[in-house]
Amino acid sequence: MRAVLKKDPAPGAVLVDVPVPKPGPGEVLVKIKATSICGTDHHIYIWNEWSQNRIKPPRIMGHEFAGEVVELGSGCLKAKVGDYVSAETHVVCGLCIQCMLGEKHVCQDTRILGVDTDGVFAEYAVVPEENLWYNDPSIPPDVASIQEPLGNAVHTVMSGETRGKSFAVFGCGPIGLMAIGVAKAVGGTFVAAADINEYRLGLARDMGADLVINSMKDDPVQAIMDATKGVGADVVLEMSGAAPVYVQMLKVVRPGGRVALLGLPSKPLTVNFSDDIIMRGVALHGITGRRMWETWAMTRELLRSGKLDLEPIITHRLDLAGYAQGMDLMTSGNSGKVILYPEGLK
Predict the structure, then answer these.
(1) Parallel, antiparallel, or unpaired: how do β-strands 64-72 and 14-17 relate?
(2) Active site residue 40
(3) Residue 345: pLDDT above 90?
(4) What is the third-level CATH fold of 2-146+310-341?
């Protein structure tokens, strides 16, 4: 089968022909219908500092997918050949205190598909049965393949009350763009979106943002405060990881509002906790991954309801062999989600 392999501890990857893997006990073999490029995959591809400290090549890349179960390992309890599935790619231990308390998304012994084990940039992939998500047949494979990052957006937006709230989204990468659509779908009355990339700001408009701000041209703090008549946003979603945003977000969240933090700053930051958070009664919530399986259920219902349309952010569809082009698009920033098709474009 064809697969995209991180062969060496260096930038890049190679398309190789490797044997179809065999599922072990409690595992299934999935024929991949569609797989999408994630920011994590891009980090691995360009071989940044995080990747150098985490990835041990050779490793088949990729973790976001939709496909069909074609073979069962021994001991499988629910899955059947022919099931249309995606997967939660955080493989958790089930034994730590977080898992025991129903907080598997912060399991202290998490392993990740395509990071710690071989992934899904391939024609076939092995996945633990307990990680399968059974897709609604009405959701096409390209959309089904991006449910995991969509889950990040859903978790970020839904970490507090949303109905009748105003939102400010900092960072219009794919998950930030999804968050705009989610916020509107679950009762947000106003969504402002800030970024420095005009292409992605255009996608933000397509996803329903009421106000888009190019932070290289206009002051996002002034723009959001003007739009909210000096009140500020009820909810701020930090999706960028950019250092200047951590000052801006605390100036635009209203007193008593909340800030949900998904972006990862590259360096430690200084924050005025006394004046900007404590004395203003601002709630901060760090977001990682998706709640298993609460967020997945919300995600499926949003897609099935028709209230959330992700088509605007699926900007490129490529054969699996076009993975390098997809990575270059990610580097440029002039893309939304890039979908790869191991079976080829049809």
Answers:
(1) unpaired
(2) yes
(3) no
(4) Quinone Oxidoreductase; Chain A, domain 1 (3.90.180)
